[in-house]
Design a protein that fits this description.
Elements lengths: L1 H4 L2 H45 L11 H13 L5 H13 L12 H7 L5 H13 L4 H9 L2 H6 L4 H10 L14 E2 L13 H10 L1 H8 L3 E12 L2 E11 L4 E11 L2 H18 L8 E8 L2 H7 L6 E8 L5 H13 L1
Parallel strand pairs: 1-6, 4-5, 5-6
Antiparallel strand pairs: 2-3, 3-4
Helix pairs in contact: 2-4, 6-9
Length: 335
Amino acid sequence: MSELKKNVEYHQLIEIIGKRYQSAKNRVTSAINTEMLNAYWEIGKYIVEYEQEGKLKAEYGKALLENLAKDLSVRYSRGFSRSNLNYMRLLYGKYPKCETLSHKLSWSHYYELLKVEDDLARQFYEKQAVADNWTIRELRRQKKSGLFHRLAIGKNKEEILRLAEEGQIIESEDDFIRSPYVFEFLNLPENYQHTESDLEKSIIDNLQEFLLEMGKGFAFMGRQQRITLNNRHYFVDLVFYHVKLKCYVLIDLKIGEVGHEHIGQMKLYLGYFTKEVNEETDNQPIGIILSEEKDDIMVEYAMLNDNSKLIVSKYQLYLPDLEQLKNKVKEIIEK
């Protein structure tokens, strides 16, 4: 037996069997999710049609879901709470055609999506959840942080509608711009006087959440990467490689307000990576300076007639005022 365990082909056999087994389990889970999603949509349809055909007196309308929940739970046990039935009805109401449902998402995904009242925002989160394979937890986090509305700020009406229909597509450095980035997952105390080093360490400790906030396609390359010029050492806080854009992405973190000297320093980093690090197949590197505050006019002058791919954006450690973001986007659309 010990000789068998040393055999390379034996371990390959284990690997093949394991992958086939896991593949079958995944397909079974997917099939179950699809069937349950279709069933919940049909149940919602039955309820709506029952109501619309006037088979229930108006004064008893509000009691329909309550009674259904009790009677169905007695007969079929779990799955028929009043809340669940209400969301099944909503599922049919928001998606009148069953074919428009994505079977890459589960009922639990749609349960969260149906909590989003704004149709544009819901459409965006659905597209993004499919494209980025979001878990339920990730979907909740992006909703809570107002991702759609943060991306929509600064766009015109047509761009906002396109964002809702297609989701966020990373095609250039401009697609990284958010207003602001939200790092609430770092869980830094509100009154704590954190340093840039504290912020950087917390990001590394929560790298998965940080990458989710930054967007799809980032590969982490390192922190505090050293650049030596004229016998002086400089350190880039965080270095990533963007797989789709085929370029390095350099990130500097700043406490307080960004200054023109920080912009100049990032330009130095970008120049170094262009000349010393890039391979022939790599595109021009992108620099992102994240700061708590920024003066837009100073940034504009510091980058006037500059061809480097440099973004200066704000971050905040606590969730934004979602209502304010919603109102700003609403104003843009109504104009």
